[in-house]
Amino acid sequence: MLGYNGRIxxxxxxxxxTWIEEPSEEFYRRYIGGRGFISYFLLRETDxxxxxxxxxxxxxxxxxxxxxxxxxxAGRHSVGAISPLTGGYGExxxxxxxxAELKRAGFDAIIIKGSSEKPVYLWINDGRxxxxxxxxxxxxxxxxxxxxxxxxxxxxxxxxxxIGPAGEKLVRFACIMHDITRAAGRAGLGAVMGxxxxxxxxxxxxxxxxxxxxxKLREISRWLAQNVERLVRSLHLYGTGAAMxxxxxxxNLPVNNFRGDPFPNVMDIDARTLKKKYGIRMDTCFACPVxxxxxxxxxxxxxxxxAYGGPEYETLASLxxxxxxxxxxxxxxxxxxxxxxxxxxxxxxxxxxFAMECFENGILTKExxxxxxxxxxxxxxxxxxxxxxxxxxxxGDLLAEGSKRAAEKLGKxxxxxxxxxxxxxxxxxxxxxxxxxxxxxxxxPTGADHCHNMHDTALNSERIANELRSLGILEIPSVEDxxxxxxxxxxxxxxxxxxxxxxxxxxxxxxxxxxxxxxxRAITGWNTTAWELLKAAERATTMTRLINVMRGFKSxxxxxxxxxxxxxxxxxxxxxxxxxxxxxxxxxxYYLMMGWDENGVPKEEKLHELDIAWAIEKIxx
Amino acid sequence: MLGYNGRIxxxxxxxxxTWIEEPSEEFYRRYIGGRGFISYFLLRETDxxxxxxxxxxxxxxxxxxxxxxxxxxAGRHSVGAISPLTGGYGExxxxxxxxAELKRAGFDAIIIKGSSEKPVYLWINDGRxxxxxxxxxxxxxxxxxxxxxxxxxxxxxxxxxxIGPAGEKLVRFACIMHDITRAAGRAGLGAVMGxxxxxxxxxxxxxxxxxxxxxKLREISRWLAQNVERLVRSLHLYGTGAAMxxxxxxxNLPVNNFRGDPFPNVMDIDARTLKKKYGIRMDTCFACPVxxxxxxxxxxxxxxxxAYGGPEYETLASLxxxxxxxxxxxxxxxxxxxxxxxxxxxxxxxxxxFAMECFENGILTKExxxxxxxxxxxxxxxxxxxxxxxxxxxxGDLLAEGSKRAAEKLGKxxxxxxxxxxxxxxxxxxxxxxxxxxxxxxxxPTGADHCHNMHDTALNSERIANELRSLGILEIPSVEDxxxxxxxxxxxxxxxxxxxxxxxxxxxxxxxxxxxxxxxRAITGWNTTAWELLKAAERATTMTRLINVMRGFKSxxxxxxxxxxxxxxxxxxxxxxxxxxxxxxxxxxYYLMMGWDENGVPKEEKLHELDIAWAIEKIxx
Lengths: 621, 621
Known about the structure:
Two copies of one chain form a homodimer.
Chain A: E1 8-12, E2 17-21, H1 25-31, H2 35-45, E3 59-62, E4 77-82, E5 89-94, H3 98-104, E6 109-113, E7 120-125, E8 128-133, H4 142-152, E9 159-162, H5 165-168, E10 176-178, E11 182-184, H6 189-195, E12 198-204, H7 214-231, H8 233-238, H9 244-250, H10 271-278, E13 279-283, E14 293-296, H11 313-318, H12 328-341, H13 345-360, H14 379-391, H15 395-399, H16 402-410, E15 420-421, E16 424-425, H17 435-443, H18 462-470, H19 484-502, H20 513-524, H21 530-550, H22 580-593, H23 604-609
Parallel strand pairs in A: 1-6, 7-12
Antiparallel strand pairs in A: 1-2, 3-4, 3-6, 4-5, 7-8, 9-10, 9-12, 10-11, 13-14, 15-16
């Protein structure tokens, strides 16, 4: 081998100590990073009894081979833990600069166990780590806390990963904010960090990682710079959310808690409108020429601070159309509150949409809502509820548990309005339209997820069709298909999306698999191939599955809310819905293609094949 | 896609007609060539009742994407049919110039069905094909026939694939000779050609294939030229068979029908000795700087004609040590006879070794042998028997059926001396030493085979270890191991060896998987990856398996001769042998890793995953 490996920082907050581990090069090559690292350590070091909010849970920040190297898309990392939202494998990715900074500080991952008695933060500076008091930061919103830390350490260049008040208060869908605009949003990782009384991880590093073949990396970067406008023009101009009208027409855009009601003013919340009215510039991540991050500034009726960036598509839909809201200013304000309190915008919006439908059906009343008229379309009420959740005040305390738990507490049939999988709220893409995506929601290890998933309507685009061919998918199944050809495409393509996470490379980069293999080869010097890398992704997915099996998940947890089996009342999806029998069949076929048994439990031969025979003992008898 | 595809020549000898098919680019990308093409057409167009020697059998000559392109290792092609030796999938590879010539003539494959009443040969000249009378060629040895064809067509540059007298007489291990020195040796394909009364396929072509990225091909060729001496020095100097002494020491070299008796004069038959005593030059294949083909010339006591090349390792062992013979001149003579008559040297030698052990045990007597003292070590007798088999004279008629059928006819316990798998004689590598290779003998679709197999003792060499890493095999299991780690290594590595066949690229080229993917990409313009290519290899292997299932093979046909479960009487393997229980377990685990059921039948989900759902109907109910 060639001497590529790195260092992992271990932290025990109960003991107040840190230490460093240096795994072998084989470990790095086998697990690579991101989900590969996180699932490895969670599978090894947690068990069926681990309380997601107890000190025995691990919180893992994981970079990968690519993070922080001079190549577009390298600004990514993942954070993971046993999720307080699902009880199973929890993980979320983030972009920005924090990951690259940690790489330059000499670490590939941070694994945090235990919990502190008093609030603390972690200060990592060029290979050294220190646990510092954070009592004075506790309760601060994210912008305030970031400023305080930079001031206290006298360095404006420090990169901060942190929780806001929502994480401190164990909101089950609290997120971890990086650079105060990049959320590791999903799975409630902010609550795990809060349970450990860890306010922040502040990082500074000055040593660029070694690259085996810098000329090759430069060549690929040049190719991207030359092709970025052609291949991802809309992202480059507007970021995500620039085709809301088409999403509404096809039925993909969720309206009123996925009920699919009319939403006439859809263009009011489109990213093109947003840019024109309030966009002040586009922000970007480490080494990236795409620059897809909106920055918005509003003075009235809400004061929206550009320091908090701007809303993504998921946010425009979850706090917008899914709540029946076409008030762009209110959505931007709610987005800012989510970033300041540190809450996942998808789960926040979806949980409010759930509450709105409960209100419409008399399951929640004005007595519950502190007098708010919590109807679909009420923007002021939505903004207030976001804040109530962040503070766990009034009804916010109930909703802070997420829609699944809130519905269980409310009873009275509220469950049917909770649009979640495994406890995690469904993102803003319609599985009645994108059927492979529906399969993906059902089988995703983290509960409903849109990132490591297949968007059926996009498969025919030049860019994705090209990626599919590089995987050997030569004929693209139709959007409606959910038969074996679609399942095969899903298996290969989602595995490829998981590879994006494991390397990690931002999935918005218009590289195909050929480029990605070349990037890893250029960075590490390994003679690696698409075969090896995709097997690493499959290994990671199988480890996440094993974690969920270990945590007691069964095959029937891989399922969708009943709503998706009935058509919309009007619009494009008024005559079509998912067929549960077909979905069940697709799920089983996916299990079998993955080398799992009919109940979704990975088979021994697959663990041998993936070189993780050590994990056999993790399968409950 | 990019416009890469080609033409397939169809021939019906019963009807006396030829036509051309032009499959889609998707077809080419999915099946690529070699075993991919052959297994596709055999699976589609033969069935359980196809008589290997009847007109309904197909004889398929298959090039691949790489054949005939300007890159070392591109001089390969495969020939296939339902095997008269095994009754199942039959296929053999050859090098030389014939494949490249066919490519330049504008074809990627020839599929021949039916049978002619009178002897014919096929004449293919730059896109045109003609069936011509061969009555005057019938009965000729290969050198004579090649000269006659070239003379008749007035072109010394014509490349000829042909059968000799052995193929005409349906010797079950008759081969197809190319350039009279390159055998598509195994599986009895010469008998299939003979049954069709097809003496030869003569080819001339003048149009080099299109290359998408010639500069990249040149770059890779340059790399090889610079590294060939370092990486394959021994092959370059001596060809195969230059370490017979080490093979004897470790127990790998078969002696006396795999009995492992002492063989003191091993160096007498070593390739280094051969080169020194009789080597006149090294021959090479299309575009190849390795030049591993020995050319020998002997005047006495046998006249050995350099036109017939020289013996490979397999031949030196099968007609040499495995028959107890250390008479190098006799071996060279027997090799020449095999090339002239068109017989597989492995099966020829192994069948004679079988006969020698029968003779030793009184199952064959001098009455049977025409008075020959057919003892181990009797070189003169061996040479005579080779000729008798080629002519099907006397005892040669029995031995021409191969060791399995001969043993069945002889009875009296002869079966235990027939060292074959599925009817095909075992090549010259000892499975008691190389245990993964033993697994490979058992599960190979063609019966015992050493080419698409793993040589456990070589895995730690710089070259193979590098190839293994490119597949994600980071830790190499020990030679003795036959547990799950070895089975995983076998699954990945043998699939990679099958890829060599499918592309095809000569397995002696010291390219790793990274190079091979780049070569295919440069030739075709496809954005292909190791994932797609290794899946194409897996697809081919699964199709070969389906053919054998269709032909009635069962799991217990995947087994080795009893001899390998007992140690040698002396030497390195006197205390060790294969453990049948462990082998059984390894075979089952291999099935499961391949996505086959416990009986070795490919599962539906695997056929869906490999994009060959059309083949589901081929599985007998």
